[in-house]
Amino acid sequence: MEILSSRVILRPQDYRRTLEFYRDTLGLAIAREYPGGTVFFAGQALIEVAGHGREAEAPTGFAGALWLQVRNCSTASVELTLAGVPIDRAPQREPWGLVEMWIKDPDGVPIVLVEVPPDHPIRRDNRPSDR
User: Fold this and answer.
1) Do both 6 and 42 map to the same domain?
2) Which residues are CB-neighbours of 84 under 8 A, at least 6 positions away?
3) CATH of the domain at 97
4) CB count in 10 Å sphere of residue 76
């Protein structure tokens, strides 16, 4: 099997409120719009907010989390606080070396905002130096 692309599809309870959160509060750029939905750029991924397809009896909540990398978690924390977004967990350095901060979207979908410090292995070139 060959995977060519991927995206996360959200089917919110209130499409307009969730659209405004991702577009206006988080400031994600729109990749495309279609009748009943909007697709946002989110780094190397796409997040689609669909205004259709949610069944009335569908379970609420989200079993996973969105992982969004930011340049600086402290700066993002200030921006989100000024925008009225509650911070579930303030930025802190994790044992695995990343700085993480937690928020939720209007439907309670967990969002992990991640800062990769300059000394983290993700930023290092792990190729042998004898090239």
Assistant:
1) yes
2) none
3) 3.10.180.10
4) 21
CB 68 within 8 A of CB 111: yes
Rounded distance, CA 89 to CA 84, Å? 15
Task: Dump pLDDT digits (tens) for 55-87.
Answer: 666 666 666 788 898 999 999 999 999 999 999
Q: Report the chain's terminal Cα–Cα distance, integer Å.
A: 32
Q: 4 pLDDT exceeds 60? A: no
Across 10-14, 16-20, 110-114, 126-130, least confident range: 126-130
Whether residue 42 is found in the same domain as residue 72: no
pLDDT (tens digit, 9 = 90+) per residue, 83-97? 999 999 999 998 888
Pairing state of beta strands 99-104 and 45-50?
unpaired
Which residues, including other chains, have CB under 8 Å from residue 4's CB and lie 6 or more apart? none
What the block records as the tokens of 83 is 């925008």
Rounded Cα distance between 101 and 18, Å, is 20
70, 115 Cβ separation under 8 angstroms: yes
